[in-house]
Each structure stands twice: as C-alpha cells, then as structure tokens.
Amino acid sequence: MVQQLTRYYASLRQAQPFADQVDYSLPIRLVAIAPTFHAHNHIDREHSRLDFEFCRFAISGAGDRFGFQLASADSAAETAVEIDARFHPFLQPIDGEPAPTPARVIGRPPKSLRAQLEQMTPERAELASALRLQILEFDDRMREVGRSSRTQYGLAKGEKEVYKTKLCAEFFPPGGFNLPALYLMLPYPKKEFGAPGHRYKQERVKGLAWANISLWFEEKTVTFYLGKSRAGLTQYHFTYGGYAKLCEPLLGYRPQFESVEDLVALALAEWKQVVEA
C-alpha cells in the first residue's frame, strides 16, 4: 500500500493536474484508508521519506440504519456519518445472511462514445446519453462494447463482448460526419423463399435489419440498409408515419412513433424476442 501511494505521489507531483486551481507548493497529504493494516504496511511507512496517515474504516448497522466509521490508526481521532439509503443495496451482510441483489449501476460510456459526446453541444450530448441509458437499463443482459469509433449494444457474451447475431443498437459516425448516428435493429418486411423452385412467396414476413434513425436533423426519418453493407445503394427511407404503416402487417398493430425513444423501445422489444427465442 505504501509503495502504491508513493507512485501516485510521484505521478501527481510530475503531472500537476488542475495547476490553476491547486497550489503544489503546499504539502500533499497521503492518506490510506482500509479495514485493517498489515504489519508490513507499518514497517514500510516507518522507513519511508514521505508522511502517511493510516485510517481504519468500519460499517455499523442498527435496524435499517447504517453508519460509516473512520478512525485514525495513530490517534484516538474518530468520525462517523450515516450512510444514505441509496447505498444500502450495495452493503454486504455478515453472519451468513443472503446478500441483497444491488441495483444495476450504469458506468460512464466507453471511450468510443465518450470522445464523441465531448465534442457535442450539451443538448445533443444529453439526448445521446438519455438514449444510451434507455438501452442499457432495459435488461440486465444488455452489454455495451466500444470498438474504436463504434459503440455496440447487444446480448452479453462474457464480460467484454456481445453476440454479433444478437445486436440491438449502435452509435457510429457515418463517413464525413463527426456526430454519431443511431442505428437500430428494426422490423422490416422481407421476402421468403417458397418450395419447390425457390420462388419467393407472395406474402412478406417480418425480418430485422439495421436502420439509421435521424437524430440531428429536423426531418424525422428511418433509413433501412438492406444487404451486407450499410455503405451500399440499397436504402429505403421512411417518415415516422410511413414506417408505422409499414410495421402494421408485421406486428399486428400500428405503432405510434412520436419520438426516437419510441423507435428505441420497439428495437428493445424485438431484441428481447430474439434473445428469448
């Protein structure tokens, strides 16, 4: 622990972040906080040129109230604060009691999306962030994966991957644009081969294909890309109303698309059907 803090201290003195707000001529306090300290930690501190403060912490509980206690390892100084109820689900019980299931915590976006959000106006960044949360909060099985400038959302495959055949959405800036476009896997009417002779059937069936949802323009459109590449010429453009009409025979009802959130909700519902099929 002492060696780790020493390296942090050296990096801080060298980089001096926020130098316009921090006076680095003043002493830097080095504080280690842990439930307990090994004897070796005290030996390392004793023979270090730097001054370290060791503080022990503990969590106490009485009924449905919990407190965070902090005590100096070198003096009688102690302090205690009550833990806000929002953090209670993350406390691990003792004495063999079953651990509660904590609410899912959505971390910051991966670098692929974060770099794009930082270049947006606050209003646009807020919209993209809200759509991201709508996708991630829909199902615990949804995973977010950053790939260079592409950010994908789909069924979790381990800790850091998603199944390519079970994708739901992605943010990706198309060629020539700095703003990321939102792509959703949405229903579309596809042809189905009949037998014999491999001729297409008359009726259309529901398939899923990538659709670009306009975010940064006044005109609200849904653009489908059919084929192996989204850079090809096989594109079909629909207004929200036109796409709702297209969906009616596929879904058995005509959906109402008033906002991009409505389209995201449809993509999430279709994704869940694929995952649970």
The unreliable regions are none
Major beta sheet, specifics?
Answer: 7 strands, antiparallel
Strand content: 25-35%
Instruction: Give the helix level as a range of percent.
Output: 25-40%
Number of helices: 6
Helix vs. strand class: alpha+beta
The shape is elongated
- Order of strands, widest sheet: 5-6-7-8-9-10-11
Q: What is the helix/strand order?
A: HEHEEEHHEEEEEEEHH
- Mean pLDDT equals 85
Written overview of the protein:
This protein has helices at residues 2-15, 39-46, 111-117, 122-136, 240-251, 260-276, and strands at residues 30-34, 52-62, 65-72, 78-82, 142-147, 150-157, 161-172, 181-190, 205-213, 221-225, 235-239. It is an alpha+beta fold.
Strand-helix topology:
Layout: H1 2-15, E1 30-34, H2 39-46, E2 52-62, E3 65-72, E4 78-82, H3 111-117, H4 122-136, E5 142-147, E6 150-157, E7 161-172, E8 181-190, E9 205-213, E10 221-225, E11 235-239, H5 240-251, H6 260-276
Parallel strand pairs: 1-2
Antiparallel strand pairs: 2-3, 3-4, 5-6, 6-7, 7-8, 8-9, 9-10, 10-11
